[in-house]
Write a structure and sequence with these properties.
Number of domains: 1
CATH architecture: Orthogonal Bundle
Number of helices: 5
Number of strands: 4
Radius of gyration: 13 Å
């Protein structure tokens, strides 16, 4: 699905992501809920298509996992921002974000 970069939803998603403080995160569902929506997948599509210039690593999956395919790049940002992490059971990442300590609500 190709989204329109000028749509109010896309603009609102990127605005919320820009507001997430360093060291804190929101899940795709958190971002959607902040907008009064349940469209977590569309938030993910928005980030995939238009989030390269935003702090994309601050938007994670519900289990605390970083964006798929960007685990190593995200870990560099998490360490630099001192984002609380937990060991992960997944061999490909080895970590996840500690949502109980890092979750941010605007």
């Amino acid at each position: 699905m190709r989204l329109n970069p000028a749509s109010p939803f896309v603009e609102a998603v990127l605005e919320i992501v820009e507001a997430i403080p360093p060291g804190r995160v929101m899940t795709y569902g958190d971002v959607a809920a902040t907008l009064g929506s349940r469209a977590a997948r569309v938030v993910g599509q928005t980030m995939a298509q238009f989030g390269a210039d935003a702090p994309w690593w601050r938007v994670i999956r519900a289990g605390g996992h970083p964006p798929i395919g960007h685990e190593a790049r995200a870990l560099v940002h998490y360490r630099a921002e001192k984002t609380p992490l937990k060991p992960g059971a997944e061999p490909e990442t080895g970590y996840r974000v500690d949502l109980s300590r890092a979750r941010w609500r605007p």
